[in-house]
Each structure stands twice: as C-alpha cells, then as structure tokens.
Amino acid sequence: MGVVPGEAIEIRPARPDDEEQVRRFLGGLSSRTRTRRFFSGVSRPGAGFVRALLAVDERCDALLAVHEGLVVGHAMSHRREGEAVDIEIAVVVGDEWQGVGLGSRLVRTLMRRAAARGAGTVGMDVLGDNRTVLAMIRKMWPEATMRASCGAVEVTARILR
C-alpha cells in the first residue's frame, strides 16, 4: 500500500478492547522500528505488556492512530510525580506511515492532553542514531535540553500551551 499524506487517520484515546489490534500492530513493525521504540527487539508482546500500552488513567495516557480500522501508530505518556519532568512520552509509527507527519500529530495531541492535565515539562529517550526523531524534536522544541547517555539521548522540554 502506498501512503498518501493526508489520508484520513483518526487519532483517539486507546481503549481496553484495542488489545488485539495493538498486538497485531506491534507484531507488524520492523525489527528496526521495534528497537527504536522499545530499545529492544520485542517481537511477540505478551498480554500484560499490551495492556500497559493501553492504560489510560490519572497517571497514564495512550493514543492510537487508526486508518481504515487498523492501528498505524501509538503514543503514550506517563506522569512522573516529584521528578524533573512532569511526563515521559513514547511514540511509535508503523513503518509504511513514517515520514508523513503522523508521529508529530501524535505528539502534538498527546502534549495538548498533558497540558490540559497540568503538565509543564516533557521528557523522552531517543536512540542516538534516530536522526529523524531528533530533528522532529529540535523543530518542535528548539529550546529542548538533550543529553547523550549510553547510546541514547535524554530529552527534556517545556510543553507549549
């Protein structure tokens, strides 16, 4: 399937009944994409792992990007009480959907939701060789602090309201 920028993609909160679709989505990711998101080659995610990715409560938020009934992206945040950052985020976009702005859309939606819940700072870890994501971060948060550590880049930024 060729990806056409602007194709109708719904970004919505994750639900418990999304478990099987998210498992299929994760299983369809390339090893490279899985490693960039999870820092390991998770190939057959267990039920508990998938449920954790779908958790939505006072501390966790999870969003799905859905196209024609299929999950094509996932974003999540976790609130950190008493830490240097208010929330940690993580995002993954299906291989054939990368490079069309879907990751940025997921991040912006997640940030709006986090800001509405009072978050002011965001943190994320990015593998150092993931130049595309690091460039997106520099564009979205030019003032972000980036610190290299063990092959990854620890990013801290203010959430723009």
UniProtKB/TrEMBL annotation:
It comes from the Bacteria. Its EC number is 2.3.-.-. One of its GO terms (molecular function) is acyltransferase activity. Residues 9-161 form the N-acetyltransferase domain. SUPFAM superfamilies: Acyl-CoA N-acyltransferases (Nat). The keyword Aminoacyl-tRNA synthetase does not apply. Keywords: Acyltransferase, Transferase. It is an enzyme of class 2 (transferase). This is GNAT family N-acetyltransferase. The lineage of its organism: Bacteria, Bacillati, Actinomycetota, Actinomycetes, Streptosporangiales.
